[in-house]
Specification:
CATH architecture of the largest domain: Orthogonal Bundle
Radius of gyration: 22 Å
Structural class: mainly alpha
Number of domains: 2
CATH topology of the largest domain: Clc chloride channel
Largest sheet: none
Order of helices and strands: HHHHHHHHHHHHHHHHHH
Distance between the termini: 59 Å
CATH superfamily of the largest domain: Clc chloride channel
Number of strands: 0
Amino acid sequence: MTNAVLSREMQTSRTMTDRLTIMAWSVVIGAVSGLACAGVRLAFRLLQWIFVQHAGLLPEAAAGLTPMRRLLTPVLGAACATAVLWAVRRCSKTGAGRAEEYIEAVRAEHGDIPFVATFWRTVSSAFSVATGAAIGREGSMIQFAAAASSWIGKRTPLKSVSLARQVAYGAAAAVAAAYQAPIAGIFFATEIVLGNWAWSEAPQLALASTAGWLVSRAVLGEDALFAVHDVLLVSWQTALWTVPLALAMGITGPMYQALLRSLRFARSLPLALVWSGLLVGALSLLRPEVWGNGDVALSHLLTGEPILSGIVLILVLRILATTFCVGTGTVGGVFTPTLFAGAAIGLAAGQILHFPHPVLFAIVGLSALLATTTHAPVMAALMAVELTGQWHLLPLLLILNLAAFRLARSISPHSLYAVNTPNPSQRDRHPRSQAHVGNLIVSR
């Protein structure tokens, strides 16, 4: 055997070994990320129990409180969150409190997410989330998990995969863990985090996402979050009626994003978070479903039969509360609130048109609105079917999401996760990209 043949065989062997090592490491990153997500979720529950003596669903906790406690609990939590952010800002003056979101870190290709600053922002979010702020808790969970992935990635001797890619693996696992949606987690990382169809990363993303999902299920014991147990049969006539709804979501998506950004001036108010807590508390006196990220309200939409007036009232109250929380700078995300808004609009449309299964329109609505706000139509369709268990709707949702996405992008090129990615000459200086929705982390 010639030296050239031996050299090629050795090179192939080394390549295969490196590949297997990277895949094994992606499993480790995924498990760490999933464990971090589950840990934050449990910490949120503990803090919630301390404030309201109820570790279950936030609207149920709110409903069990006296009106005065329901009003003041979000204010108290916002005050604690403000104190934490104030301390972080003081640290940032010395350079110790610099925070960076994981999408920016991956797009800038350095992957460095300071763990300490992220930890304290997660603590601030915990006070807000545990006391009923109308913001998504999953945002903080995924951001913290990404920071944990960055921390462990910086300490591995494995140099054949960049830190930015390791953070992307952690993000995929975190989405899978937070929403019990491992396939959607892969496409979240591909369409949103990486911003391109990096097929070479698909095996690693799949392994990391699966590992995060399995770890989360082992710790939290959750299944499909919003399972719809009825079989939603789709006829050709019904499918045609969903097209106008999807196109309407294509117009609604950019408007929804503009609405979320409309009150950003409110963060300049003195004790801005406290004012948002007061508004949430006041609105929850009308409906306790104002508390939290909207998961309970979404579950009721998909599994119950709420009347039209109740749907509209909760939708208006929740959008108002979420917009003000975003405007004042509450740390969290709007991924789940967006799912609720889309489902509420879709269900209302189904009831107005007197369809026998308006829940189908709710699923189309949540999927299409998510697609138009994130500009990730495949991820949105997969998220919808994994959350509800209605896998037979996937082909229809993919077609509708693509149509809604194209329309939304023609109106506004910016997504909810849009960042100004630096050019290669700037990447070496590790610039800070500017998010279009400034305060929102991970699940914007």
